[in-house]
Amino acid sequence: MKIVDQIIECREALLSTKPSYWPKFYKHTYVKKKDNIESYLDVPSNVHPKLFDFDINLLKIGTNFCKEQIIFRADKICSGKCMVYECETEQILDMWNMDPQTGYRWPNEIYYKVRKITPQGSVERGNDIKYAWELSNSHFLVTLAQAYVYTEDMKYINQYFMIMDNWIKNNPVGFGVNWSCTMDVALRAINYIVSASILSKVYEPFESLYKKYSGILYSHMLFIRDNLEYGFVRENHYLSDITGLKMLSQIFVGDEKADRIYSFASKSFIEEINYQIYKDGTDHEASTCYHAFVLELFAIGLATDESLRKQMPRKQIAIFFNMVKFSEELCAFNRYPIVGDNDSGRVLDLNATSGFKDVVPVFAKMLFDINIERINEYSFMILGNKRLAIPNSYEQHKGGLFQKGGYAIADSSVHRVLLHSGTIGRKGKGGHGHNDQTSIVVDSYGAPFIIDAGSYVYERDLIERHAFRSTVAHNCVMLGEVEQNNIVWSKPFKMQNNTKAKISAEYKADKTTLVGTHFGYEKKFSTIIHREIEISEKLVITDIIDGKYEGTISMLLTFDPSVSVKIADNIVYASLCNGKEVSINLDEAVVGTIVDVEYSPEYGEKYQTKGLKATWSKNQEKSSKRLIIM
Length: 630
What we know:
Shape: elongated
Helix content: 25-40%
Structural class: alpha+beta
Number of helices: 17
């Protein structure tokens, strides 16, 4: 018996006794020799995929707008073009290992384990491997499938097969950048399966024609099994691996190896709800965008697996339900609020308008039969009457305080506020969290007003990477030029947990008070930072600097690009996109300046907007300054 099969058996045994732990040696069982790649090509000749049985009728009743947008995008794909982040490719075919911004190509001959994060100044620095990964995730195959559902035009199916054949030809199993990250191998497999499942329902010969891809799908399954991204903290990468592995093993049901893999993957999938999601429904990575991505993984994994839904424990159902409820709170903002990293990641790109605000309500409807207005045409994975039972009232998270995740949300008739003050992510190890403790996002009169600056890039440029995750880029207080949490400048995701932040909230009929506290400056300056926010008709933000620090204090507020601002007599006058006027009154000792700042709404995109830089000095033990938004 191969070592990986022995380890899966060991894992299955441990699940019944110690479900939170893995054998320590599992993560070291990667294939070490190139010769062993041949094992991924060892596909039984009699194994063919049994695709999912989706309800295509729901896809056919989509809005005309979505249909038109999907067909428009599909036509572009047929001409060789598609969007990869902010770039439009000139030709999809033969560009799988390329950064379209720079034209740099990673050699396909490189063994998949060789690729590492590259140091500043190397030949790869300045080129972004995520563009190659994103293109190869093959979201556009689902778009082609949707377009065929609407039109029955064979050009979409022909283009579908041409793209599949071209990718397989240019990406030999185990070689090149598109095998270097298991997560993206899994996401690609999910898009292969979903797009093929759609087409098999509307084009009768498709399933027979698709059999020629049995080998590549089976190879994906074996590869993921042997290269699970299991680190000292499990997160979205590992969940992607497990979800893709589970769905691949499902379509090869009846194959002995696939059935054993499914047993392992389905148990691991349920375990990750416990591990990665707090009881209040928030993802443990300190990022609202990764929360949405993880929600999508869990929802797709559940929606396509009736057996798993039937055996899902009540505790995990309640956690997942609270995850949906937290997402609803985020979606109630005019724009989905960014906290922490945003790499624009999606599992499936099923809707022409895209965006997290379209994803959440569909999952709520699909899995819990919650009636939400924004249901649209891509909920074709509808479960009929076989949904999850809504948890009892005592199991449901209530209110706008999500203490475990470090979020508090409150609103009045004028303002809606999100305060972040809590974990830096990944069980205090950092990763996708930013130096944004006590930072805020604000809507006023239903329009976006104060926003987070976003992320921009990861590995491509470490200077830009850390500029966007630094304290100075966020809507919070900074002492001198010192970071809240120490950043490891040579690494794109490392951060020390100096802040150990806390959050609380008090909700009353006439006003709500949110309080965030962090200790990032306690060892550096014997100083603690408190932020108190009172929400009523007015929004009163009080920053309390408690300790021995003496010197300059600064705070930035980044305004949405739709907002026009000016300042006079220490009052900021802001005009919102809906024509409403808002003012910000600063304390007398505070010097306010309107400055140009950068923000990134999506990965790879960077624009200028306006911000308010407020500065003051502290020379006493305890000092507080406030601003009032009216």
